[in-house]
Automatic annotation (TrEMBL):
<keyword id="KW-1133">Transmembrane helix</keyword>
<dbReference type="InterPro" id="IPR009003">
    <property type="entry name" value="Peptidase_S1_PA"/>
</dbReference>
<dbReference type="Pfam" id="PF13180">
    <property type="entry name" value="PDZ_2"/>
</dbReference>
<dbReference type="InterPro" id="IPR001478">
    <property type="entry name" value="PDZ"/>
</dbReference>
<dbReference type="GO" id="GO:0006508">
    <property type="term" value="P:proteolysis"/>
</dbReference>
<dbReference type="InterPro" id="IPR001940">
    <property type="entry name" value="Peptidase_S1C"/>
</dbReference>
<keyword id="KW-0645">Protease</keyword>
<dbReference type="InterPro" id="IPR036034">
    <property type="entry name" value="PDZ_sf"/>
</dbReference>
<dbReference type="Pfam" id="PF13365">
    <property type="entry name" value="Trypsin_2"/>
</dbReference>
<keyword id="KW-0812">Transmembrane</keyword>
<feature type="domain" description="PDZ">
    <location>
        <begin position="300"/>
        <end position="388"/>
    </location>
</feature>
<protein>
    <submittedName>
        <fullName>PDZ domain-containing protein</fullName>
    </submittedName>
</protein>
<comment type="similarity">
    <text>Belongs to the peptidase S1C family.</text>
</comment>
<keyword id="KW-0378">Hydrolase</keyword>
<feature type="transmembrane region" description="Helical">
    <location>
        <begin position="7"/>
        <end position="30"/>
    </location>
</feature>
<keyword id="KW-0472">Membrane</keyword>
<dbReference type="InterPro" id="IPR043504">
    <property type="entry name" value="Peptidase_S1_PA_chymotrypsin"/>
</dbReference>
């Protein structure tokens, strides 16, 4: 009980003193008893002695975060998306009487970030987001040393939102390394480097933690097209517009993800803070290696058009698909391409796929996600209903 008494006593004293000052008369009483004298008056004379100086004692504040930033900062670039625009929109062109009103000029459309990860035969390769360079007529990168360089698009992938650029390597003196994103832990420190709000804030560093290793979020393009669910790293590290395409790194300076998106609201007006997402480095390396080798990502195909069983009415499930009443999840085949892997495996129109590679099909995007997780030439099992009866088959995946 003694600590409680002590707290109460302190509160009472603070309140009592406050009351004495508040209710007046005290300041006059103090002034009367302690009048200002020559000893307590402000001295007259020069103000030269009021000059402040900085102490020369240096404090070593180097931390693992600072070391990690120093090891990667020169590999991070601003990616500038340039698009053609009418010259008559330029007030300077109008002011000086530009005669060719229809001439197209390149204008900055948007800016993002990227990271240099490879040098080969005089070229340096930069990974960024596909949405950073989408719709561009020309791409430039701003190096950490302020040099602006033209970039060539090697290839891009809408599904994973990744793109690879190539620049001249004469200004590149180091490259970033990728860490194993499977080895990260929830709670460990994560750092984001990039150009929030554009190249004016290039090489900005923010710090947070890994909030979740594998978080499924909808993958939607700028025009609203769905690409299924993305399996991403969730972090509370500040990620703002312009950070897209920049690296998420660990304290060892390794790239463990490429920052891609953030959640800003819950769709009902509530603002959300500290929910950013990065594409895991293991997926990044798999995708960009294919882009560099083939110019695109080659994925396996079944050769079918399909829809979610949830889109089919209960009546049609019975009359057309002839499904048992306990089957309420899966993907309905609406068409099968002749000569496709699906046709060779015996799949037909109006079949309902309920399992693939041993996993239950719960939604439209899941079938595609399972398929894309496998490689060309692999065989996967499919469980499906045909004419009301359950069947199993094995499909060899082809491009």
């Amino acid at each position: 009980m003694k600590p409680i008494h002590k707290i109460i006593a302190i509160a009472v004293v603070a309140g009592a003193l406050g009351g004495l000052v508040t209710y007046g008369g005290i300041s006059y009483f103090v002034n009367d008893t302690n009048p200002i004298t020559q000893e307590t008056a402000v001295p007259k004379g020069s103000n030269k002695g009021g000059t402040a100086k900085v102490n020369n004692v240096k404090v070593n504040v180097q931390t693992q975060s600072e070391q990690a930033f120093q090891s990667v900062k020169n590999d991070v670039v601003s990616v500038i998306n340039l698009k053609k625009g009418n010259n008559n929109q330029n007030p300077l062109a109008q002011l000086f009487g530009d005669q060719d009103r229809n001439r197209k000029t390149l204008q900055t459309n948007s800016e993002g970030s990227g990271v240099i990860y490879k040098v080969h035969n005089g070229s340096a390769y930069v990974v960024t987001n596909n949405h950073v360079i989408a719709g561009s007529n020309q791409i430039e990168v701003l190096m950490s040393n302020g040099k602006r360089m033209q970039a060539k698009l090697v290839g891009h992938d809408k599904v994973t939102d990744l793109a690879v650029l190539k620049i001249n390597a004469n200004q590149v003196h180091q490259v970033a390394t990728f860490g194993n994103s499977n080895n990260i832990k929830v709670g460990e420190t994560a750092l984001a480097i990039g150009s929030p709000l554009g190249s004016s804030y290039a090489s900005s560093l923010t710090q947070g933690i890994i909030s979740a290793k594998k978080r499924e979020v909808p993958r939607v393009s700028s025009n609203g097209m769905s690409f299924g669910d993305a399996n991403v790293i969730q972090t509370d590290t500040a990620i703002n517009p312009g950070n897209s395409g920049g690296p998420l790194i660990n304290l060892g300076g390794q790239v463990i993800g490429i920052n891609s998106m953030k959640m800003a609201s819950d769709g009902q007006g509530a603002t959300i803070e500290g929910m950013g997402f990065a594409i895991p480095s293991n997926e990044v390396t798999r995708v960009i290696n294919q882009i560099v080798k083939h110019g695109r990502v080659i994925r396996p195909r079944l050769g079918i058009l399909y829809t979610d069983l949830a889109n089919i009415s209960a009546k049609q499930r019975q009359s057309v698909l002839k499904l048992p009443k306990n089957v309420n999840q899966g993907s309905v085949i609406m068409d099968v391409k002749p000569g496709s892997a699906a046709q060779k495996a015996g799949l037909k129109k109006y079949d309902v796929i309920t399992k693939m590679a041993g996993q239950q099909i719960h939604g439209l995007a899941q079938l595609r996600d399972i398929l894309y997780a496998h490689k060309i030439g692999q065989r996967i099992s499919i469980t499906y209903y045909q004419g009301g009866h359950v069947h199993q088959t094995t499909v060899k995946l082809v491009p």
